[in-house]
Amino acid sequence: MDPYGDRNLTSPLRKKAVQTEKPAEKVPEPPIEEPEPPAEEPGVQVETLVDHLGELRKQLIKSALVFLFFLLVVFSTLNFWFPYIVKGNNLVILGPLEVIKFYTSISATLALGLSLPFLIHFIWQFVKPGLEEKEARFLGLYSPVMFLLFVLGIAFGYFIVNPLSFQFLIGMGMANFDVMISANEYIHFLIMTTVPLGLLFEMPIIALFLSSIGVLTSVSMKKVRKWSYLVLAIVSALITPPDFLSQLLVLIPMAGLYEASIFIIKKTEDRKSAIEDTV
């Protein structure tokens, strides 16, 4: 019989046993302190989007000012450039506004050509901080070559493609028509047969750049040679007058530049392989 009865009392021995069986309370762990972000070193600036856009705006303003300067210079000395533009051809105008279009087209094209080295320099200043070391070294080394190839392309169009295709088309027209050459149509024809060729002559540099960053190889260029010639034929047809002679005059040097690009890339790959073998 329970000596404590119904009084719901606990024996001292029972209380002691319960106390010994009670689990020990957990000691609260100290809170984990998150490491503080490293303080920025003095003098190191984090470039934000606003700074990037501000730099772009600065370079665009400088480019626009240089272009406007050369535009005013060319327009004020237009009588000096005029004989080299018309090349002795008798041109007619079909309205007063065509004179403005003709002078504006001449001035803008020549001003763009004269300001091109400065524009390239401004673009280089903008993109250089964002380039990798290999890309920056490549563009810094080959920028003069790019400008030289552009000038060669312009000269090729001015001295070869334009006069030959012009005489061919005029001769074809004189067989059945009284030919009158509009000033506006003439300057459009001259620009179309010169400026695009300056851009197409950049092909070796573009191919060499893609090769330097591992996108293009000489083997891949050889594999797609047939398709590349097809693309070059389409491009030459788009940027030249619709006659076979002009297209052929453009396609032949383009094919030569494509083969030259393969040769240059192959020589570059061989030189890299020789350097890796010696290391």
UniProtKB/TrEMBL annotation:
Q: Basic and acidic residues: which segments have biased composition?
A: 18-28
HAMAP family tied to this protein: TatC
Please give the chief subcellular localization of this protein: membrane
Its lineage opens with: Bacteria, Bacillati, Bacillota, Bacilli, Bacillales
Gene responsible for this protein: tatC
The entry's protein name is: Sec-independent protein translocase protein TatC
Source organism per UniProt: Planomicrobium stackebrandtii
User: Cellular location of this protein?
Assistant: Cell membrane; Membrane
Superkingdom of the organism of origin: Bacteria
Q: Which NCBIfam families match?
A: tatC (TIGR00945)
